[in-house]
Amino acid sequence: MTLITDIRLRRVLDSRGNATVEADVLTESGGFGRGKAPSGASTGEYEAIELPAQEAIANARDDALPRLVGEVHAGNQRDVDAALRAADGSDDFSEIGANSAVAISMAAAKAGADVLGAPLFQHLGGTFRGNEYPTPLGNIIGGGEHAADATNIQEFLAAPVGAPSVEDAVFANAAVHQEVHDILAERDLPAGKGDEGAWAPSVSDDEAFEIMNEAVETVADDFGFAITFGLDVAGAELYDDDEGGYVYDDGVKSTEEQIEYIAEKVEEYDLVYVEDPLDENDYEAFADLTDRVGDQTLVCGDDLFVTNVERLEAGIAAGAGNSILIKPNQIGTLTDAVDAIELATRNGYESVVSHRSGETEDTTIAHLAVATDAPFIKTGAVGGERTAKLNELIRIEDNAV
Ligand SMILES: C=C(OP(=O)(O)O)C(=O)O
Ligand SMILES: [Mg+2]
């Protein structure tokens, strides 16, 4: 029933106005699925390769489609993704592009779900999944590679950990975003928005901590449940070997100073989440920080692990982090992403499913987070390409997908 009968690939826009790959998968019994690849800006050194959209499309048409159309069933995700890997032949999807691979992988999953008449999260996670919902981490203030002349730390993320429902959590994050707007206006601080819709004021990181803290406290009082916050430091973007450490506007921190700085911030602000606090090549420093604060907060590897089971295995052996960020396009297929999640779970690491800074209206990650019982999803707070996922979570919770 789910035999793939046609795949169509086209170039469409992402949220930055760049070209990305959209895939349509059709099946024998009329099933249909559409997937779109997102795109990173602060990409990890070890990510799968994104090719220019036209090149990825041309290569996938030549190499991948003959192995899929009339050959593989969309309902069998492992077969679809194995065919994509075989068609590519490299370790990092540098032949057909991780952007073509992930778009086809997600489109096939949706076509499989369509034929089965099941919501995507149920097709991916099985019938016993879907009663636990992730807490959305909302990007509220940001800089780094996502906005010029703003904070050094890439993302300050609201975490409505006490919300009684996904719906309440989503609205709480939007309220924190609005509250920060008001605080910035009171302080006469003009601010545009970064790539993910976070405010990008020209303030020091210390001032951003203060503003976030004030905003989450105000909104927590209004909403009547606990809201804290977390960070994506994007440490690999700050680290410069030639400078001997992490380069901030107010000076360079050695690795030891960076560990101390992050540990102090975890204590001071009760941070629940710290992503990429250190460089992507420094398992040892991740392990030191995890030793210090790992019982208080999630120490999450994004550029460190790049959704890759081999890098996660190395991290587990080193005691680096206690959490992994899951970005399907970082590795190329849903199978690879789920393998990373399963390895993480077996080893007591939490999985946090994530968007990219360049996004589309695609909602697959909302379903993936529910399908895998992820405790958190990172998918922004405002902006159409972000609310596409947040609103889908509300629908999933309301049994309306
Ligand atoms: C979402 C992120 O940014 P990008 O997509 O630019 O890697 C991130 O670093 O977690
Ligand atoms: Mg990150």
Automatic annotation (TrEMBL):
Cofactors that this protein relies on: Mg(2+)
Co-factor remark: Binds a second Mg(2+) ion via substrate during catalysis. Mg(2+) is required for catalysis and for stabilizing the dimer.
Record: residues binding Mg(2+): 232, 275, 302
HAMAP family to which the protein is assigned, alphabetical: Enolase
Family: Belongs to the enolase family.
One Pfam short name: Enolase_C
Sites where the protein binds substrate: 146, 155, 275, 302, 354-357, 378
Official protein name in the record: Enolase
GO annotation terms (biological process): glycolytic process
Gene this chain is encoded by: eno
Annotated catalytic residues: 196 (proton donor), 327 (proton acceptor)
SUPFAM superfamilies (UniProt xref): Enolase C-terminal domain-like, Enolase N-terminal domain-like
PANTHER family according to UniProt: ENOLASE
One annotated Gene Ontology cellular component of this protein: phosphopyruvate hydratase complex
Source organism per UniProt: Haloarcula nitratireducens
Annotated binding of (2R)-2-phosphoglycerate, by residue: 154, 327, 356-357, 378
Protein keywords: Cytoplasm, Glycolysis, Lyase, Magnesium, Metal-binding, Secreted
A GO molecular function held by the record: magnesium ion binding
Compartments where located: Cytoplasm; Secreted; Cell surface
